Amino acid sequence: MINAVITGIGGFVPEDIITNDDLAKIVDTNDEWITSRVGIKERRVLKNGKAMSFMAVEAIKEIFRKTGITPESVDGIICATSTGDYFFPPAASIIAYQTGCKNAFTFDVQSACSGFVYALETVANFIRSGRYKRILAVGGDMMTSITNYTDRTTCPLFGDGCGVVLVEPTTENLGILDTIMRTDGSGLPQLHMKAGGSLRMPSHETVDNHEHTVYQEGKAVFKRAVSEMADVAAEIVARNGLTKDDIDWFVPHQANMRILDAAARRLDVPIEKVMINIERYGNTSAASIPLCLWEWEPKLKKGDNLILAAFGAGFTWGASYLKWGYDTIKN
């Protein structure tokens, strides 16, 4: 039986930082208000005319350096993003060209903050088919490009970043072993971008009204996110006969510190086993889970049990159970 296993990881976050004090200069907010409600102190922002694909390219270059594989050996690139460089072509095709992956098929997955979980399962199924040997799963978003910096309730939340994993086949009992994905389209009114698609095309009115930025009804989204992300994580743990002691790491989407706490309590996982970087990066949407894996890679051991869980616009949510595939080589 062929399993799909992560064999390498790369990440990128921009150098420029927006602190809570910076936001307090442009909207009616302060560090204490933001930190107490969402647990964010700062977030990264990509500047100088660069776009989402730039971050993905840098993350993939890191994978090439760390693993020694060649761009030509990559069979596919699947990119989870809501903020591609263009409406079309897909960001994945730009990424493939700029990294020299000339033999790779490419497409994007748009499932908001749940995107990486969806993309990873899609990649895993391509690998399980036996037809492909090396596929890159990208989770990247430039959320500052769709943030309304006149809205004090949403502008503290979002930051930019990208994480990428290399997935290959294995016959060991390792890798992406199970995934659950869910959707409830009734959540549309509570979390979306009002304009920019075919329903409400760009115009002076839509731009003037900030309708090309994230619109969120915070209380309603918070309630669903706490419930669904915690429940789907618990469901995948139960479905695979795991106990709290079997879970080495819980990797939740970094949306809100209170959501992370609630999900960890639902699984009865101590906070020391929860990957958390929201304080420094904010909500990076599809990038948040792979960025956690990237930062925690030195601590991961072959065979570690990881539970990934995410919730996003759509509403979409999901969870994956994976066994880590390798021990990090200490340089």
Q: Examine the coordinates and then state which fold CATH places here, giving the name of the CATH topology of the largest domain.
A: Peroxisomal Thiolase, Chain A, domain 1
In total, how many domains does the architecture comprise? Answer: 2
Largest sheet: 5 strands, mixed
Number of strands: 13
- The CATH architecture of the largest domain would be 3-Layer(aba) Sandwich
User: Strand order within the widest sheet?
Assistant: 1-7-6-4-5
Uncertain regions: pLDDT < 50 for 5+ in a row? Answer: none
Number of helical segments with 4 or more residues = 10
Distance from N terminus to C terminus (CA atoms, Å) equals: 33 Å
Strand content: 15-25%
What is the C-level CATH assignment of the largest domain? Answer: Alpha Beta
CATH H-tier superfamily of the largest domain: Thiolase/Chalcone synthase
Helix content: 25-40%
The geometry reads as: globular
User: Compute the gyration radius: what is it?
Assistant: 19 Å
Q: Helix/strand-derived class?
A: alpha/beta
Question: Kindly state the mean pLDDT as a whole number?
Answer: 97
Q: Can you tell me about this structure?
A:
This protein is α/β, with parallel strands linked by helices and 331 residues long. The protein folds into two domains: 3-172, Peroxisomal Thiolase, Chain A, domain 1 (3-Layer(aba) Sandwich), CATH 3.40.47; 177-323, Thiolase/Chalcone synthase (Peroxisomal Thiolase, Chain A, domain 1, 3-Layer(aba) Sandwich). 31% of the residues lie in helices and 24% in strands. The chain contains ten helices and 13 strands. It has helices spanning 20-24, 31-38, 52-67, 91-99, 115-128, 204-208, 218-239, 257-267, 278-281, 288-296; strands spanning 3-12, 17-19, 42-44, 76-80, 105-109, 135-142, 160-170, 175-183, 191-193, 214-216, 249-252, 305-312, 316-323. The strands form four sheets. A five-stranded mixed sheet has the order 1-7-6-4-5, sandwiched between helices. Strand 12 (305-312) and strand 13 (316-323) form a beta hairpin. Helix 7 packs parallel to helix 8 (257-267). The two termini are 33 Å apart. The mean pLDDT is 97.
